[in-house]
Amino acid sequence: MRAARSPCAKTRGVDGRGGKVILETERLVLREMTPGDFAALCRTLQDAEAMYAYEGVFSDTEVREWLDRQLSRYRSDGFGLWAVELSGTGELIGQCGLTWQEFDGGRVMEVGYLFERAFWHHGYATEAARVCRDYAFDVLGAEEVFSIIRDTNAASLAVARRNGMKQRGSLVKHYRGVRMPHLVFSATRVARDGALPADGERRTRDCG
Ligand SMILES: CC(C)(COP(=O)(O)OP(=O)(O)OC[C@H]1O[C@@H](n2cnc3c(N)ncnc32)[C@H](O)[C@@H]1OP(=O)(O)O)[C@@H](O)C(=O)NCCC(=O)NCCS
C-alpha cells in the first residue's frame, strides 16, 4: 500500500458536500463524514434489520450523536468511522473505519463496518475492511488490529475472517439493558505480511 502520509485536499460527495478522502480501492472511496451525511447514515442506523446487533434502530438524536462522534474522532485521533462511497457514482453505501475500543484492560484499534442493506452481499464490507486494516498497519503503525463482534452476528464474523482475523478472546457488553456476548477477532501485521506474495501486493490507492 502506498501510504497516505500527508493530508489530502481532495474531497468527494454526490453533491459536493463530501469530506476529505482517506483511501480508495477498486470500487470504493473512503472519506471523512460530514454533517450533510445525516440522511444517508439514517438509511442504515434506522433500519431494524441492519441494527439487529445493536438491539434496535437509532433515533434521529442518536444518529446525530453517532455522526458527531466520528467528527470528533477525526479531530482527536486522526481517524474514525469513514463514509464509504461507490467510486463510480459517489453514492454513500456504508461506513467503515478505525476506532479505539477497550479490551483486556487497555485500548485496541478496531476495524468497524456497517453497510446499507441494499449493498450487502457484494463484498463491499470486506473490501473496505481490508483497506482499513492495512491503513492501520502501514500508515498508523499498528501491530495488531481488532474487530469485536456480537457472537450472533454471523455476517460480521464472516467479514472479520475474510479480513484475515482470528478469534483471540471474548467479552460481554451491556447495551440497552441487554447482555451481549462478543467475540474478539484480530489480525497482526506480521501475519498479514507473511501472507503477501513474494513481489508484494498493492492493495490500495491513497488519496494523493
Ligand atoms: C456486517 C455487514 C457489513 C456484512 O456485509 P456483507 O455484505 O455480508 O459482507 P461482504 O461485503 O464481505 O460481502 C460478502 C458477500 O458478498 C459476496 N460477494 C459478491 N461479490 C463479491 C466480491 N466481488 N468480493 C467478495 N465477495 C463478494 C460474497 O460471496 C458474500 O456473499 P454472502 O453474504 O451470500 O455469503 C452487513 O451485514 C451489515 O452492515 N450489518 C449491519 C451492521 C453490523 O452489524 N455491522 C457489524 C457490527 S460488529
From TrEMBL:
<dbReference type="Pfam" id="PF13302">
    <property type="entry name" value="Acetyltransf_3"/>
</dbReference>
<keyword id="KW-0808">Transferase</keyword>
<dbReference type="InterPro" id="IPR016181">
    <property type="entry name" value="Acyl_CoA_acyltransferase"/>
</dbReference>
<protein>
    <submittedName>
        <fullName>GNAT family N-acetyltransferase</fullName>
    </submittedName>
</protein>
<feature type="domain" description="N-acetyltransferase">
    <location>
        <begin position="28"/>
        <end position="190"/>
    </location>
</feature>
<dbReference type="InterPro" id="IPR000182">
    <property type="entry name" value="GNAT_dom"/>
</dbReference>
<dbReference type="GO" id="GO:0016747">
    <property type="term" value="F:acyltransferase activity, transferring groups other than amino-acyl groups"/>
</dbReference>
<dbReference type="InterPro" id="IPR051531">
    <property type="entry name" value="N-acetyltransferase"/>
</dbReference>
